[in-house]
Design goal:
Blueprint lengths: L1 E4 L6 E6 L4 H4 L8 H18 L3 E6 L44 E4 L10 H7 L4 E7 L1 H14 L3 E10 L3 H13 L5 E3 L1 H8 L4 E4 L14 H7 L1
Parallel strand pairs: 2-3, 2-5, 3-4, 5-6, 6-7
Antiparallel strand pairs: 1-8
Length: 227
């Protein structure tokens, strides 16, 4: 269902998850429509900076010295991480979104941006009620982060077209699965999220009960568009 929402800028933060160079360079891990996703994330970033909101970046950087290989973890050449190895320059945040000196960059060894324990105190110190989330991959690191935020009682505004995955289908079904259990949160487009960031009220999609979207192969795209 759709509901009008306003955001208190004093209790809202923006989180950008895993916008790293390898997402557009490494063939196996390229994000579909990445240029468009990046452009939408940049639009959100500019709006958040204009309003003085806290901005946090998370980046996957697999460091075996900090967290040794897990028992079933895939390894790459020479026993390095299969992707996002700490020695790879492609783990850098995409140049378009270059963090400012006062914007934290959280390096993580697992999917969720909460996994290293650094994000919790940042959000608590900012008295964050709403966390605007964008990033990649939708069904992996974005999903893990969203679920951990909900577990902590933080409301998530999931920006559906500022997230992405390896294919459009993976992304759309990832958003639908998150929307089905986005307790206390909402789904919005970049355009709607920008209106909220600028202080306006806007209609967003919220789940009126658990699992309201029983989607199929045939209607997933239409339901995604309706969010």
């Amino acid at each position: 269902m759709r509901r009008s929402l306003t955001l208190d800028p004093k209790r809202t933060a923006l989180l950008l998850v895993d916008f790293q160079e390898e997402q557009r360079v490494v063939p196996e891990y390229t994000v579909a429509n990445f240029a468009a996703v990046l452009a939408n994330a940049l639009s959100l970033l500019a709006a958040a900076r204009d309003r003085g909101l806290p901005v946090i970046f998370a980046a996957y950087k697999r460091d075996f010295d900090k967290v040794p290989p897990r028992p079933l973890e895939h390894l790459g050449a020479g026993g390095k991480a299969a992707f996002s190895d700490k020695s790879s320059p492609l783990t850098a945040i995409c140049r378009e979104l270059a963090p400012r000196k006062d914007e934290p960059v959280l390096l993580k060894n697992d999917a969720s941006a909460f996994c290293e324990g650094e994000l919790d105190p940042i959000l608590k110190n900012a008295a964050t009620e709403w966390l605007i989330v964008c990033g990649v991959w939708t069904e992996a690191c974005v999903a893990a982060t969203v679920r951990d935020a909900i577990d902590r009682g933080i409301r998530v505004l999931l920006v559906k077209d500022a997230c992405g995955s390896g294919t459009v289908a993976m992304h759309q079904t990832g958003i639908l699965n998150l929307a089905n259990r986005l307790y206390g949160g909402a789904v919005a487009s970049t355009a709607t999220a920008r209106r909220l960031l600028e202080g306006d009220a806007a209609d967003v999609w919220v789940a009126e009960r658990p699992v309201p979207l029983l989607f199929t192969y045939h209607d997933a795209e239409a339901l995604f568009d309706s969010l």
